[in-house]
Amino acid sequence: MARVLFIVNEHPNEAFAISVARETAKLVRAAGHTVAWRKVPREATYLGVILDADRALSHEDVVRRKKTAEVVEGFHKEVKPELTYKFHCTPHDELLWRKSYKRAKADFSIRGGRRKDGTHSYTVEMKAVYKPFPKRLDDRITSKTDGWAIRRASYLEKTTSQSKTRELGLDPEKFAERIAKVILKENIPKRREIFRRRGRIKKKKPLLKRWRK
Ligand SMILES: [Zn+2]
């Protein structure tokens, strides 16, 4: 049985991903694993920094103030997971799910790899439907990002609509079933054993050598 870390809310405008993570956690726990649930506090995020600011911020100010990466590292130190999954439905990825895009065979993806500490961390991205922020919130974002050329970054422009996403037949429960299936396929005891025996994974051959073969 493995210790799995679920991280949500790195991007607070992607609340639908939290619903999917919640349903997925139920299934992974039911299979006997331990799931540590960690939510990044809003104030540590890109959007949170902007909303909490007492004046208009430059983009550099926001990048300097946001603490998402530090918070995520803190979760790793605290939980010491064998596997990590971060749940997103990032608006940038909308393109990936379009029928016209050749890789659009699925409506979710799980990408990632080994961390420096030898454990594996994956980002789960899923398709969602978005809506503009409510006017009050949009006004606040506008006033705190005065003059930004990138003001219309998708994180600051829209938020997931849970109801519209469900209307499209994209239910958190359905996503969870398929995502949990992928997670439960991970052979963690085997992976742990290999890691212990080898100490480290063999380095890949340089690209040029592989090419010449
Ligand atoms: Zn995201």
Would you summarize the structure shown here?
The protein has 213 residues and is of the alpha/beta class.
Sum up the structure in keywords.
213 residues; alpha/beta; two-stranded antiparallel ribbon; 9 helices; binds zinc ion
How would you characterize the overall build of this protein?
It is built from nine helices and seven strands. It is α/β, with parallel strands linked by helices. The protein has one domain (3-212). Strands 2-1-3-5-4 form a five-stranded mixed β-sheet, sandwiched between helices. A two-stranded antiparallel ribbon has the order 6-7. The chain is globular, with a radius of gyration of 19 Å. Zinc ion (ZN) binds next to loops.
The residue-averaged pLDDT reads: 86
Judged by helices, strands and strand pairing, the structural class is alpha/beta
Largest sheet: 5 strands, mixed
Helix content: 40-55%
Taken together, the total number of domains comes to: 1
List the helices and strands and how they pair.
Blueprint: E1 3-8, H1 15-30, E2 34-39, H2 46-52, H3 59-65, H4 68-79, E3 83-88, E4 108-114, E5 120-126, E6 130-132, H5 135-144, E7 158-160, H6 162-167, H7 172-185, H8 188-198, H9 207-212
Parallel strand pairs: 1-2, 1-3, 3-5
Antiparallel strand pairs: 4-5, 6-7
Helix pairs in contact: 1-7
Bound molecules: zinc ion.
